[in-house]
Amino acid sequence: MKTAKRKTLLILSLAIVLFTGLQFAGSDIKKTPVSTTLPFPHDVGIILKKACYDCHSNESQLLWFDKIAPASWIVSRDISDARKVLNFSVWDSLSPADQKGKLFEAFNQISLGAMPLKQYSALHPEAKLTASDITILKTYITSLVSVKTSDTSRINAANKQYDGWITTKTNTPKVKPAPNGIEYIPDFKNWKAISTSDRFDNGTMRVIVANDIAVKAIKENHINPWPNGATFAKIAWEELIDSAGNVQIGEFKQVEFMIKDDKNYEKTAGWGWARWKGMQLAPYGKTETFTQECINCHKPVKDNDFVFTLPLHLKSK
Amino acid sequence: MKTLVGLSFLSIFLLISCSKENLYNESASFADSTKITRVLEEKVITAMADRKKKTISTLYGNDIASEHARNSADHQYPSGSELSLVTWSQKEDIQWYGANIPGEIKSIEIVKYQTPDSATLEHYEGKTLQLRKTNFEISMSRIGYISGLRGAVLP
Q1: Which residue of B has its CA nearest to A107?
Q2: Do A237 and A273 have their domain in common?
Q3: Does B152 sit within 8 Å of A249, measured CB to CB?
Q4: ipTM of the complex as predicted
Q5: pLDDT tens-digit profile of A124-136?
Q6: Are A53 and A27 within 8 A, CB to CB?
Q7: What distance in Å separates residue B3's CA from the closest CA in chain A?
Q8: Is B69 within 8 Å of B146 (Cβ atoms)?
Q9: Are B153 and A252 in contact (CB under 8 A)?
Q10: What is the pTM of this model?
Q11: What is the pLDDT of residues B52-101, one digit of tens each?
Q12: Angle of CA points B23, A201, A91, to nearest 5°
């Protein structure tokens, strides 16, 4: 009896020592001063501050329980991951186009319920966004959409690219693989279209095509999850807009792929990701970690096997 | 009691069929019965949108037509070419604010080249794809418009 009591006491004191020790190890979230005043309207700024700043800025205002290890380790890992991909304190360092892209991405992460992180909003109820907060954000990003018609320089650029492409068919450039080793798949041009998307957020027209394995899965209603080998390509062109609101396809911008293989690509959400840009088909990404960006943005549709597109329901004959 | 069991089976069935609907863009797809389903399986030549009318269209071609559109800048399609312009009303993508995607099918216009100088137009309208009569002038102008669309650059 006595030994048992002593044992408990020993374990308890060990635990206390360990717990206190933990507080000095690892995690160290610094509050670096903010570099800029944000170019957002006041009400938008308030919303982003209350819901996102703890992770996506240098102004983290952590509560006492966030600072206690081991919780603080998780929090600090979240914060450093979060700052890497989106940091409002260095907003100025992004080009205007990238700023707009990030805001649309941020809005969509919110509206699909992916941000703020669930484990965070459970403990920080003040960070939950109300319907009116969401309306304010939506109105704001909608006001950023460009409505101007394309000038002649864009039309000329498209004509020039087309003329070059249509006349010189034979010498296809040798395309380098993506940094994660995925090879270019030129045959996507002959795949079947499953959707077309007019992206008014960034002024591009996209056609999404699928290979035979994916088309077979569509016809046989086996698309969630998609079978191994199913592959999508998304082709993007700049949009040319005239004063009557007609949108035509302009310059080719990029083509990107998702190749399903739950074994080979287990580490990247079961898909092989790759993108090639411009007529040179330059592989996108410096190292193989570029796929993190793809996965982060596709994550809100993870219940849909990370696929955004709801395909046309092609039917067998 | 029996009706209750029946009802719950029915609701389960409805639930399952609803969840299936959610995986596809059914409103933009053809109903099973149409004779022209092959159109959606042809090759893409280009795509376009009309922001005022809120429509989005994809131009498809059979092998002869797409081969031509991808290899020559003239719009003299060889015999046997078939071009199909499918037009949908646009809807907001529920998964991405910033994208408009096909909603309901509005029309399908199929241009068929019997010879390089003679083509016919078939015009189908609405979700049920009713074949519509078009007068000569409108047909000529639509054939001219559709054949004049430039192939999108595909490196």
Answers
A1: B97
A2: yes
A3: yes
A4: 0.87
A5: 888 899 999 999 9
A6: no
A7: 31
A8: no
A9: yes
A10: 0.88
A11: 999 999 999 999 999 999 999 999 999 999 999 999 999 999 999 999 99
A12: 115
Strands A282-283, A231-241: pairing is unpaired
Alpha helices in chain B (DSSP H): 2-21, 63-71, 136-148
Domain co-membership, A220 together with A183:
yes
Q: Which two tokens stand for residue A1?
A: 């009896």
Distances (CA, A) of A94 to A78, A90, A97, A103, A262: 22, 8, 8, 12, 35
CB contact under 8 A, A251 and B153: yes
Q: Provide the domain count of chain A.
A: 2
Percent of chain B with pLDDT over 70: 84
Chain B CB contacts of A218 below 8 Å = 24
Could you read off the pLDDT of A147-206 as tens digits, one per residue? Answer: 789 999 999 999 999 999 998 765 666 899 999 999 999 999 999 999 999 999 999 999
Quick check: B90 and A314 CB within 8 A?
no
| Residue A90 sits in the same domain as residue A195 | no
Is residue A291 over pLDDT 90?
Answer: yes
Query: What's the pLDDT tens digit per position in A36-63?
Result: 567 799 999 999 999 999 899 988 776 6
Question: Are the C-beta atoms of residues A253 and A236 closer than 8 Å to each other?
Answer: yes
Q: Which chain A residue's Cα is nearest to B54? A: A245
Cα angle A49-A51-A53, degrees, rounded to a multiple of 5: 45
- Token pair 């409505």 in the structure block, residue: A147
| Neighbour tally for B11: CB within 10 Å | 10
Domain encompassing residue A189: 152-304
pLDDT at A19: 46
- Cβ distance B115 to B101 under 8 Å? no
Cβ–Cβ contact B64 with A under 8 A: no
Cβ-based neighbours of A105, under 8 Å, separated by 6 or more: A297
* Residue A7, domain member (yes or no): no
Domain boundary among A143, A176, A209: A143
On chain A, the residues whose CB falls within 8 A of the CB of B100 are 197-198, 200
Query: Is the CB of residue A52 less than 8 Å from the CB of residue A79?
Result: no
Other Cβ atoms less than 10 A from the Cβ of A171: the count is 6
Band (A79; pLDDT cuts 50, 70, 90): confident
